[in-house]
Amino acid sequence: MTTEKNNTLNEEVESQTNDHVELTNEEVETVFAEAAGEEESTTVDYGAEIQGLTNKLEEADNRYLRLQADFDNFRRRTRLDIEAGEKYKAQKLVTELLPVLDNFERGLKIEADNEQTKSLLQGMEMVYRSLVDALKKEGVESIDAVGKEFDPNFHQAVMQGEDEGFGSNIVTEEFQKGYMLKDRLIRPSMVKVNQ
């Protein structure tokens, strides 16, 4: 009984394998044609793909380097702006105080004819010196002009004259003092220049 059962099973297995294995010539050719078509479609030009990826990588690197340079420039400009802001923070105040200094200087040129006026002038001179000292602490310096050669960067010529005591192009008189804040010109000196 077991032999009969084994024979039946073997026949059944053979029939099932034959069903699946048997292909017609047309089916075989179709399978080979499909396989060849897939092979052609999967064949890729790797050299072109590598070159394209290399170009994209170089472009990304260049963009990264430009962004980094822009950021470094921004950081440097910001640092310079902050330093300049700190260095010249008193510029607006100094500019507003210069007319006050001019008025003090004009007031101190008045001739005192009695004791009361003299004591008032002494008080004004003390306030003037305190103001000048406070401005010097902030880096404000007056520009020396009389007897110096005319420099359009620091002097503003409002008159010309002929004075034999001075050489040509020398400042002979100062009408209004000029001032510098550290290395920046705040106001040029108004001067008379010898021809």
Secondary structure tally: strands = 6
Topology as a string of helices (H) and strands (E): HHHHHEEEEEE
Overall morphology: rod-shaped
Our count of helices gives 5
Largest sheet: 3 strands, antiparallel
The tally of structural domains comes to 2
- Secondary-structure-based class equals alpha+beta
* CATH-defined architecture of the largest domain: Roll
The neighbouring-strand order within the major sheet is 1-4-5
Radius of gyration: 48 Å
Fold and architecture overview:
The protein has helices at residues 2-21, 25-42, 46-87, 91-108, 115-137; strands at 140-142, 155-161, 171-176, 179-181, 184-187, 189-194. The chain has 195 residues and is an alpha+beta fold. The chain has two domains: 46-87; 88-194, Head domain of nucleotide exchange factor GrpE (Nucleotide Exchange Factor Grpe, Chain A, domain 2, Roll). The strands form two sheets. The chain has a three-stranded antiparallel sheet with strand order 1-4-5. Strands 2-6-3 form a three-stranded mixed sheet, with no helix packed on it. Helix 4 (91-108) runs antiparallel to helix 5. It is rod-shaped and about 155 Å long. The model has no long low-confidence stretch (mean pLDDT 83).
